[in-house]
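Anyone? Bumping this.
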Amino acid sequence: MRENPTASADRDTPPTEWSVDVPETAAGDGGSDVRTSNDRLLEQYRRRSRKKSAVIVVIAALLVAVWGYAVVTGPIPVSLSETVSVLSGTDTGTAYQVIWNIRLPRIVAAVGAGAGLAVAGAVLQSVLRNPLASPYTLGISQGAAFGAAFSIVVLGTGTTSGSGPILSVIDPYLTSVSAFTGALTSTTAIYLVAKYKRATPETLILTGIALAALYTAGTTSLEYFATNTELAALVYWKFGDVSGTTWRFNALLWFVVAAVTVYFTRRAWAYTVLNAGDETARSLGVPVERTRLFGMVFASFVTAVVVALFGIIGFVGLVVPHIVRRLIGGEERILIPASTVAGAALLLSADTVARTIISPIVLPVGIVTSFVGVPLFLYLILRGREYW
Amino acid sequence: MSDGRTAGSAGGSDGASVDPVISFDGVSGGYDGDAVVADVSLEVHPGDIVGLLGPNGVGKSTLLKCAVGLLDPLAGEVTVDRRPVRTFDRDELARTVGYVPQNEPTNFPRTVFQTVLMGRKPHFGARPGARDRRVVATLLNRLSLDDLAMRDVNALSGGQLQKVVLARALAQEPRALVLDEPTSDLDIRHEVEVLSLLRREAPNGLAILHAMHDLTLAFRYSDWLVLLGEDGVRTQGPPAEIPADAISEVYGIDVSVHEVDGERIIVPTGSPEPTSL
């Protein structure tokens, strides 16, 4: 019955430790068949990983190109040579003002917000095993918006500047905390539904729609009771706009996005293992509940900061991870950093379009992402259903 | 142990001198406090394949989950290497017991290589190293999955996917494997392929506990069988000592046992009593 003669030969002392007998790599010399076959597989895997890393480099290059274009483009013409002298510090005239006080803050904000929303979407999709998950579709953005609006209207953390309807958040920290509180209520609801109802992707998204409706109603109620100036400010802020940013906002935003991305990247393999299902993941040593909860909380946090500073910018968190998966497959250790870079590139492109499409009128970026995002969302629903 | 198991099982290993890897001592298992299965005692020694048999809903999966720490027993104790399962930390248990669940969900694209590499997670923690990748390559070759290595698991057939999941469990380099109907979706060729693989690896020190529906294959590929009925273990022993009437009783259908080409074949005779489910 035994098919392993060597093993049955020494049955008196049966081995008690099972392990995979791994042949060393053949490094040049003509090794055994197994060895060369192993090397071939490892080479395939390595080549594949390198190709995926190359995709990140290409997207990053694209981001740099759009960044450069965004710096030199706008209603006030700034030539390339002027730009160079501004950035090298030799020009401190109008061009200096335009670049350092108007364009660069906005660019840096768009890059940070895009990265944050995209990475939040990527992680939400992975930890919930749900291709339709994103801060926007799960009602997390809307919860954050309600929290932020609450702090602006009730706690008085925002004001409108004298020059226009653009809202200035005067206390980004308190607004962010309030937004995070709102976001967490949505996250908690989603988490509980996922945990106790063994929800299908569709159930979770329907829950998200309900939450979004609830918080939108809440925000509308706040508007009803707001003063005229607050109202104008809130409505403008609801569009999702990065133009009201400051270097102080940007520092907060980038710090949060960087910290959360580092955390997510370190947990990438745990998220990958979650793909195999909760039971398998637990049998592989991954603390499933904790990984999912922490992933959702950090995703909500970065979403809340973006929403508190700039309002709701939809679809970036949903669409970007899908575009990246198309390019590199679903490997979280690449997906997470790649989504960050791609989200930055996408939102910066959208913002550049928003600034230039009907120049000199500058649109809020949220309008552009919605016009681009909705067709992509529909495409995902109608054609992109291969994995859900 | 209450089953009075004597030293040595059908596999010929000297059970008395080697500690069991997995042992159940009066285990009751179930959900939300309701016991599905009660008072089960059994042992799985290195080199042995132990099969759990019994009709649907009798608690086979429940017991297997207790062995991998997915479920806490309602009563009794499951020990691995003589230590209660609940005292292990997650990674430590995952390095000791590999689990092949009944089905593998598929959704986002992931390659076969990456899926098997998941099995190394309890060893590598944050990111895999060179040996982890080599273990995966070795197993893919050994299970003839090398041509599929870069394929998306969502595009595999049921048989291929089952082998990938088995490779992942082996990549854990566990001392015990727990398999929940590892061959339920497979055609006869893949079924025999998977079972022969287990048969081949067991003598190298793996303790294997599996649940199965195909009685003939279970008899052929197990060293020890545990027959579960409504009231827990009906009988257990080497396949040759499991009486046909116990099988008939547990499954509610008459069977006869035949010997064909030196293998025992279990054939249902007569029609089952109509049951109200």
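Late reply, but here is one note on the structure posted above: Chain B has a mean pLDDT of 87.
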